[in-house]
Amino acid sequence: MKHIVLQMAVVASFLITGPAVASSDHGHANHANHGATDRHPEMRTAEGVGTVQSIAEDGSSVVLAHEPITELRWPAMTMEMALADPALAELVKTDDYVAFVLRQTGETDYEIISIQAAPSQ
Description:
This protein is an alpha+beta fold. Helix content is about 20%, strand content about 35%. The chain has a domain at about 45-115: CATH 2.40.50.320. It has a five-stranded mixed β-barrel with strand order 1-2-3-5-4. Keywords: Signal.
């Protein structure tokens, strides 16, 4: 009987305090934009090299056939990558072998923040 009374007391305490605890921000207000780089300056960067396959007309992205990027555990692949600034597109041309720096912009998203022609291997 004591065990049942104890269980009922525990359940009652959760029913009373549960909503208050769930709605409290516990001192961590404003968790919106968790993946935004302005709130997380520790977002990682990584360097890579590859060949420019194409450049978006508006300068928003490039398609790169890049070598493995070990920092990110990425194998060699061809992929479209966003450019942080469309002016970066003016620094390279199709078929250029380039070195680039990626910056994390979200949990699994990256953008190129630096790109330049590199000596061929």
